[in-house]
């Protein structure tokens, strides 16, 4: 009989070895899949690394993907710390993008750029925060399971976006296609480097990471959500206001996801449309977990995930492997990493059935 | 300090990856003969989707065959959002000199990249924006659409034809209109019903749209979407279908009456040749059957000879320039005369068409501000 025993202390050796072995096994498993396409896996992996990290250009594209992942995962960490399972970054991202777009589309092109961008960013944060507060209220007042409510709100957000794009916000000049008017220059986040798409959102991400890090480590709020996360009952006995903390945590979590959505539109896509990559809201959950809910580590994990996506497209270009291979490699690495997480927490023992 | 350790892990990982990449023998840049022209293609669906993207990929292979100095690459399944712009940029960065982006939604991303890479030639399919170094191209698919409408109009018994359509953009509205004009010409009682899938490539949705039509009495399914799924649904129900993009007979041999098909390779070869010769300029290409870019695929065995004769006669008239499906009189859905006898819809109006002709059952969603 297989037994999972909780480890009391995790040794440093294990902490280092398990993720390394996991990634290695993931690459081996992905490599087996690649072999089926009659391609040398080593060539594919080399192209992946090269496509993600080998030049200023490729690394800049990696960062472009990392920006939303950093912002969202940092926000998620706040909610996850108090065991509030926010699966709704997807929807908060969309609503943030919609709120910010409202100003991008309705303000005159002559409005000073810093002013408009400030308004848009605040609107993005507000939109995401409001969308995050709905499940917070449902949880605080009626004990509605937040996994269900945040997940379902994602679909509602997507349909609101679709309604706007097929209805009132569709650009008449788009010939019926569901696209908004393009953002004017004053509604576009400035780029950090010429000839790349890395935009100001990266700075937002770094600032968010620092603030959230301090918030969790050094403030009363951070202390309280950690206590709630570890033992809700004890927190209540200790006089911690759980309802208030749920609201604050979800406002931060949703707000950062909303900012990520707005930054993606204003920094990369430059118009509102249906395909605005809200799927980063799910990827960021994995990023937050792999970083053990530490925002600084999450920043680096986000860059690695950005590299996987950016490099993934390059593989297709450099070597003619089918599109599905990229997803297979990503999933294989992820699968083993998550499996490794279990081994880190539990010891597996084989025991004869005594009965 | 507890959290420093995972950080170390990640830094180690990065270092490992770096070493791994560094150890690999430095790739000596392959010295290509100076003449090689690198041409890239971006597809919205899988290159073997059995329709739209596959037709473009066949064009790519044709191009490779025709011009020995051309080297091609492609990326498939590219979403019409931020990733698309990245893929286009990747190709520019890898030294590709001609880039074909083959979906409507790639238009603005293509334009964005074109601004940053003035030395690269961009060609966008099915859109309406151009710039100094970005042209667009499409074909007068409405000619084969009209001919296919003739076939369907004569073959239907229930007078209910279902048209599975992607987006309500002019390209598709024009298709449905031309198809209906053909069907109505030979069968005044026919109705062409429309369902929007709001997606280019979604075989599941396409099949379920077809099944909805079939359940409501349709005996012919016309496809305007990227996969053959709708036709396969028709075949399963023992009904007929009209294919799109490429000859779809092999996917539903018992159902396909004919298909409206693209021969993109002709245009791809033309562009590559012009770029090679230094004569390329950004333009708006929109040729019809006479140029070979569009055509009607061979008829299925169930199409009687007299139907074929009628359609071939019309086809010849179009090829001779004696006939255009959008010649008046044309009534719209509400019965209003839109185009008078002896008049013809102008190219500009065809390109922006946003109204259905008489005989279409369906609505075009209203646009916003």
Give, in order, the helices and strands of chain B.
HEHEHEHEEHEHEHEHEEHEEHEEHE
Portion in beta strands of chain B: 15-25%
CATH homologous superfamily title of the largest domain in chain B: Response regulator
Q: How many alpha or pi helices of chain B?
A: 11
Largest interface: A-B, 57 and 56 residues
Strand order of the largest sheet of chain A: 1-2
Q: From the 3D structure, determine the CATH topology of the largest domain in chain B.
A: Rossmann fold
Q: Would you report the number of β strands of chain A?
A: 2
Instruction: Please write the string of helix (H) and strand (E) elements of chain A.
Output: EHHHHHHHHHHHHHE
Strand order of the largest sheet of chain B: 12-10-9-8-6-7-15
Proportion of β residues of chain A?
under 5%
Give the helix/strand class of chain A.
Answer: mainly alpha
Characterize the biggest β-sheet of chain B. 7 strands, mixed
**What's the assembly state of these chains?**
heterodimer
Could you tell me how far the N terminus lies from the C terminus of chain B, measured between alpha carbons in angstroms?
56 Å
| Number of H/I helices of chain A | 13
**How many β-strands of chain B, per DSSP?**
15
**What is the overall shape of chain A?**
globular
Please report the distance between the alpha carbons of the first and last residues of chain A.
11 Å
């Amino acid at each position: 009989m297989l037994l999972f025993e909780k480890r009391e202390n995790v040794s440093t050796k294990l902490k280092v070895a398990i993720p390394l072995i996991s990634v290695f096994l993931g690459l081996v498993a992905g490599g087996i899949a690649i072999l089926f396409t009659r391609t040398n896996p080593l060539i594919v992996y080399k192209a992946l690394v090269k496509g993600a990290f080998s030049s200023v250009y490729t690394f800049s594209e990696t960062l472009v993907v990392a920006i939303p992942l950093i912002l969202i995962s940092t926000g998620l960490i706040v909610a996850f710390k108090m065991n509030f399972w926010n699966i709704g970054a997807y929807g908060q991202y969309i609503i943030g993008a919609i709120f910010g777009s409202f100003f991008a589309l309705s303000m005159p092109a002559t409005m000073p750029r810093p002013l408009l961008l400030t308004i848009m960013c605040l609107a993005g944060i507000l939109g995401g925060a409001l969308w995050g507060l709905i499940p917070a209220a449902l949880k605080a007042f009626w004990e509605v399971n937040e996994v269900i409510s945040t997940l379902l709100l994602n679909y509602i957000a997507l349909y609101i976006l679709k309604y706007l794009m097929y209805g009132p916000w569709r650009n008449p000049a788009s010939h019926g296609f569901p696209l908004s008017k393009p953002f004017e220059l004053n509604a576009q986040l400035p780029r950090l480097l010429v000839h790349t798409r890395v935009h100001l959102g990266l700075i937002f991400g770094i600032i968010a990471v620092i603030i959230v890090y301090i918030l969790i480590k050094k403030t009363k709020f951070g202390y309280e959500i950690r206590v709630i996360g570890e033992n809700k009952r004890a927190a209540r006995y200790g006089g911690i206001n759980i309802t208030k903390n749920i609201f604050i945590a979800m406002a931060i979590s949703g707000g950062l996801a909303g900012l990520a959505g707005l930054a993606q539109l204003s920094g990369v896509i430059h118009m509102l449309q249906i395909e605005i990559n809200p799927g980063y809201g799910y990827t960021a959950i994995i990023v937050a977990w792999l970083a053990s809910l530490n925002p600084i580590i999450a920043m680096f994990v986000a860059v690695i995930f950005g590299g996987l996506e950016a490099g993934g497209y390059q593989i297709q270009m450099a070597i003619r492997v089918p599109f599905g291979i990229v997803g297979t490699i990503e999933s294989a690495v992820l699968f083993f990493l998550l499996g490794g997480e279990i081994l880190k927490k539990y010891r597996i023992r084989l025991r004869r059935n005594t009965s | 300090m507890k959290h420093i350790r995972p950080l170390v892990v990640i830094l180690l990982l990065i270092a490992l990856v770096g070493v791994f990449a560094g150890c690999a023998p430095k790739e000596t840049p392959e010295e290509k003969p100076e003449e090689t022209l690198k041409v890239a293609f971006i597809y919205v669906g899988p290159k073997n989707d059995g329709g739209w993207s596959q037709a473009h990929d066949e064009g790519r292979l044709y191009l490779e065959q025709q011009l020995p100095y051309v080297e091609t690459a492609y990326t498939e399944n590219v979403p019409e959002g931020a990733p698309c712009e990245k893929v286009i940029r990747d190709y520019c960065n890898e030294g590709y000199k001609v880039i074909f982006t083959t979906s409507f939604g790639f238009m603005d991303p293509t334009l964005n990249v074109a601004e940053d890479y003035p030395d690269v030639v961009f060609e966008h399919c099915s859109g309406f924006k151009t710039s100094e170094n970005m042209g667009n191209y499409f074909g007068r698919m409405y000619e084969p659409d009209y001919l296919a409408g003739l076939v369907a109009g004569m073959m239907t018994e229930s007078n209910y034809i279902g048209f599975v359509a992607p987006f309500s953009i002019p390209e598709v509205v024009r298709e449905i209109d031309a198809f209906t004009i053909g069907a109505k010409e030979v069968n005044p009682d026919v109705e062409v019903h429309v369902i929007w899938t709001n997606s280019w490539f979604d075989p599941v949705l396409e099949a379920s749209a077809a099944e909805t039509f079939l359940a409501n009495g349709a005996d012919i399914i016309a496809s305007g979407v990227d996969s053959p799924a709708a036709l396969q649904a028709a075949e399963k129900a023992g009904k007929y279908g009209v294919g799109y993009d490429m000859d779809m007979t092999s996917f539903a041999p018992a159902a396909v009456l004919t298909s409206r098909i693209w021969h993109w390779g002709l245009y791809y070869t033309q562009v590559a040749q012009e770029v090679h010769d230094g004569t390329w300029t950004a333009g708006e290409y929109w040729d019809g059957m006479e140029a070979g870019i569009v055509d009607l695929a061979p008829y299925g065995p169930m199409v009687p000879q007299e139907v074929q004769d009628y359609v071939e006669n019309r086809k010849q008239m179009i090829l001779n320039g004696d006939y255009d499906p959008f010649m008046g009189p044309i009534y719209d859905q509400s019965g209003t005369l839109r185009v008078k006898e002896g008049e013809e819809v102008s190219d500009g109006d065809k390109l922006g068409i946003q109204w259905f002709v008489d005989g279409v059952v369906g609505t075009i969603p209203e646009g916003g501000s």
